[in-house]
């Protein structure tokens, strides 16, 4: 409660690590936002910071990076894929795959799309892989 009554001044920069000016720019990039209250800016920054901290801690504890004493991208993408809380990040943190594998997947999707148009079940093609 003290933070709210203290009215944010120069002290807010010590309470959050993220740069408030950058967060303001990101918030203003939304067409629905016309003005940003200083308290809303601070709370958004703090909530973002806590979320990133939670994501990193969870990913580290549940990932393989613990063995190397490091948080890896693979740990983060695994968390986004496996943990329901973080599944909304799956598009932002996709699993790493080789470009050749990705191109094969695209080719298969294209073939399957053509097959579906012909009303064939496409099982023969799946057996090839």
TrEMBL record:
InterPro entries: CBFA_NFYB_domain, Histone-fold, Transcr_DNA_Rep_Reg
Gene Ontology terms: cellular component: CHRAC
Domain Transcription factor CBF/NF-Y/archaeal histone: 17-78
Annotated region (Disordered), positions in chain: 109-129
Sorted UniProt keywords: Acetylation, Coiled coil, DNA-binding, Nucleotidyltransferase, Nucleus, Phosphoprotein, Transferase
Principal location listed in the UniProt entry: nucleus
One GO-annotated biological process of the protein: DNA-templated DNA replication
Record GO terms (molecular function): DNA binding; nucleotidyltransferase activity; protein heterodimerization activity
Span of the signal peptide: none
Positions with biased composition (Acidic residues): 115-129
Localisation per UniProt entry: Nucleus
Subunit annotation: Heterodimer with POLE3; binds to DNA. Component of the CHRAC ISWI chromatin remodeling complex at least composed of SMARCA5/SNF2H, BAZ1A/ACF1, CHRAC1 and POLE3; the complex preferentially binds DNA through the CHRAC1-POLE3 heterodimer and possesses ATP-dependent nucleosome-remodeling activity. Within the complex, the heterodimer with POLE3 interacts with SMARCA5/SNF2H; the interaction is direct and enhances nucleosome sliding activity by the SMARCA5/SNF2H and BAZ1A/ACF1 interaction. Within the complex, the heterodimer with POLE3 interacts with BAZ1A/ACF1; the interactions are direct.
Function: Forms a complex with DNA polymerase epsilon subunit POLE3 and binds naked DNA, which is then incorporated into chromatin, aided by the nucleosome remodeling activity of ISWI/SNF2H and ACF1. Does not enhance nucleosome sliding activity of the ACF-5 ISWI chromatin remodeling complex.
Protein name (database record): Chromatin accessibility complex protein 1
Organism name: Toxostoma redivivum
